[in-house]
Amino acid sequence: MVLMKWSEDLSVHISEIDEQHKNLINLINSLHEAMLERKGKEIMGDILDKLAAYTVYHFSTEEKYMNQFEYIGLLSHKKEHDAFVSKVESFIADYQANKLGISMEVMSFLKNWVSNHIKGTDKKYSETFQKNGLI
């Protein structure tokens, strides 16, 4: 069962970033599938680690272009990224300490945050990036 599906309303119309968003969605779906199948802690932990690492990689790509193109919303956008990374790191720490299981609440947070962030915050930089030659 897929938790998130890529759709055109998630596109920021920058191919590199759209591909990264698709990869994030795939990682969230992998975590969701592992949760539903009650995979072991090691497998779930590995997926969480991959999700955290890929998120940092993806955010650094966006922020690189924001810096390069002097995007006016960089600081507030970076704050959202930093808050998300902290939240995911907190999930991982609690999961590893057996304080938290991967639940539908966690999955809903991931799905909603990524979807809302792309549709709201990320779409705001599309025009700036495109004016600077990214497509």
From TrEMBL:
<feature type="domain" description="Hemerythrin-like">
    <location>
        <begin position="14"/>
        <end position="125"/>
    </location>
</feature>
<protein>
    <submittedName>
        <fullName>Hemerythrin</fullName>
    </submittedName>
</protein>
<dbReference type="Pfam" id="PF01814">
    <property type="entry name" value="Hemerythrin"/>
</dbReference>
<dbReference type="InterPro" id="IPR050669">
    <property type="entry name" value="Hemerythrin"/>
</dbReference>
<keyword id="KW-0479">Metal-binding</keyword>
<comment type="similarity">
    <text>Belongs to the hemerythrin family.</text>
</comment>
<dbReference type="InterPro" id="IPR016131">
    <property type="entry name" value="Haemerythrin_Fe_BS"/>
</dbReference>
<dbReference type="GO" id="GO:0046872">
    <property type="term" value="F:metal ion binding"/>
</dbReference>
<dbReference type="InterPro" id="IPR012827">
    <property type="entry name" value="Hemerythrin_metal-bd"/>
</dbReference>
<dbReference type="InterPro" id="IPR012312">
    <property type="entry name" value="Hemerythrin-like"/>
</dbReference>
<keyword id="KW-0408">Iron</keyword>
<dbReference type="InterPro" id="IPR035938">
    <property type="entry name" value="Hemerythrin-like_sf"/>
</dbReference>
